[in-house]
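We were asked to recover a plausible sequence for a given structure. The inputs and outputs are reproduced exactly as logged, with field labels preserved.

PROBLEM: sequence recovery
POSITIONS: 261
GIVEN STRUCTURE:
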């Protein structure tokens, strides 16, 4: 295993390499256990703390440039043939944990704001099998996080999830499926609780004006849009199934009330 503690151009005899024109003198811990892994950084980049474990072969991590936003802080595990792409101006309050395995990927768009205590996991770390068939019950699945997404404190994004541009994921929410653009999602699993919203980076107590009652108090980004959740709506079959379940539950409640009386 080769360890690298400085973010600068690098290559070893197993084809592992770092592609970066600059130099970052901040805490960096990069481990190459396999072969032909690549870390590609586009500068200038604002990094406060970065740890990457290339556990297998043919992994790729791409980090876009950042300026004018809080620094990137990430701990990234890269599995066999996996890809992690982090876009332009992605900020993190504390170290965000990311994990990929079995050819899965994590894609994070531009201008994403990641709060404290965040997990982004395309895999579960260990296999779970169906006892009867022997088949895997928890295969790794890729994650896509759009542009200008805000991941609230303690939230978790799991394999197979996609998040549309401009969306806010609430505190401690667990995202397990597709969320449309410009919504607020909350809960475990996360569900849409409000549509047609937009958020901006200015802090309520650090950036004047210190009262922001209307959109006139901030500079609007390009991500103001009405929610288009056509892709996230359940199929007609799922809608019929859900309706039938609701009718059955209501019927059971009526029967219980009659039995009590």
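RECOVERED SEQUENCE:
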């Amino acid at each position: 295993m080769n360890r690298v503690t400085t973010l600068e151009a690098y290559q070893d005899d197993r084809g592992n390499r770092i592609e970066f024109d600059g130099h970052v003198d901040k805490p960096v811990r990069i481990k190459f256990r396999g072969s032909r892994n690549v870390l590609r950084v586009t500068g200038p980049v604002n990094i406060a703390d970065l740890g990457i474990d290339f556990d297998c072969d043919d992994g790729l991590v791409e980090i876009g440039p950042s300026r004018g936003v809080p620094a990137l802080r990430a701990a990234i595990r890269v599995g066999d043939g996996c890809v992690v792409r982090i876009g332009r101006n992605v900020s993190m309050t504390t170290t965000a944990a990311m994990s990929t395995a079995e050819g899965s990927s994590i894609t994070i768009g531009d201008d994403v704001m990641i709060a404290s205590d965040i997990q982004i996991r395309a895999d579960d770390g260990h296999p779970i099998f169906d006892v009867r068939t022997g088949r895997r019950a928890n295969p790794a699945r890729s994650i896509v996080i759009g542009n200008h997404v805000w991941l609230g404190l303690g939230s978790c994004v799991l394999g197979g999830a996609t998040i549309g541009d401009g969306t806010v994921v609430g505190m401690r929410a667990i995202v397990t499926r597709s969320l449309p653009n410009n919504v607020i999602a909350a809960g475990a699993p996360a569900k849409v609780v409000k549509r047609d919203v937009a958020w901006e980076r200015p802090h309520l107590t650090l950036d004047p004006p210190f009262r922001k009652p209307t959109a006139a108090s901030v500079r609007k980004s390009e991500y103001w849009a009405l929610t288009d959740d056509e892709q996230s709506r359940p199929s007609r079959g799922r809608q019929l199934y859900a309706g039938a379940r609701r009718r059955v539950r209501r019927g059971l409640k009526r029967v219980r009330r009659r039995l009590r009386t």
